[in-house]
Every structure is written in structure tokens, then in C-alpha cells.
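I'd like us to work through together how a protein chain folds, taking it slowly. We need material for that, and I hope you will provide a protein of your own picking. Go ahead whenever you are ready, and we will take it from there:
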Amino acid sequence: MRPSVLTRSLVSVTAVVGIAAASLAGASASFAASAPASKPAASTRTVAPLATVNLGLSTAQAKNVQCWLVVYWDYNDYLDGQLGTNSWKAMQRFLKAHYGYTGQIDGVVGSGTVSALQRYLKSSHGYEGGIDGQAGPQTQAAFKRFAAWAGGFCN
């Protein structure tokens, strides 16, 4: 019985080696037949824009904001310091509940989101500029003050 088991094992190993060798040969033939590097391939896919909008915050400061959003506004994504769509959805829930945000909870940081954020920052974090929906230097400075305050929720 042993020669039969040994023979089957040897045949199996030979088959695996043969398949692997054929795959490598096909890969190198495929590589050799590819288009020259000087002509880029055409694509119909669109490139999605980067969805992170930290409004001037560092990664550490943005993590502080995310910690606060976890505690109060049902943020349940990564604490990675990247204010992406889910971070902004949580922020929009807060702004809708308290600061006049009337748009969709979509995580898009448009002028409506920024205007509501400015109203909040004016009420609590020293923002002195106009409610114009533009995240300029004054808005960013007040957002940094908010982030410093929100850091107390990260422990």
C-alpha cells in the first residue's frame, strides 16, 4: 500500500510544480506583450476626491474631535485623525440638532456645514468672524480651540 501513497504524493507534487511553472511562464509572456510604457492606458473610471476635510487641524487635533463625536454624536468609525465622511456626518447631526444646519446628513463639508459650524464656534470657542460658510483662518483657529477642548473626551 505504501508505494501507492508515495506515487500519488509524487504525482500531486509534480502537478502543483507544473501548474506553478505554467503560471509564471504565462505571467512573463503577458508582461512581455504589454503596451509600451510611453503610452498611458485610457480609462473610463473616475477618480474620487479625497474625502478627508480636517479644516486646518492636525491629525492629533482631529482625533480629539472624533473622540468627542464618539461620546455624543454616534460616531463609530476609526479614531484616525482623518475627518472623513463619517466624522462629518456625526458633526452634521450635532449641528442640525443645535446650530441651524438644514442640509442632508451626507458628510459633505459644504457652505451649510461650515456656516453651522461657525455658529457653534461663535457661541463657544471664540470665533469672531462672519457666518459666511467659508472656512478661513478665523474659522480654522476657532476649530483648533474646539479640538483642544474636545481632547478631554479622549481618555
User: Anything to note?
Assistant: The radius of gyration is 28 Å.
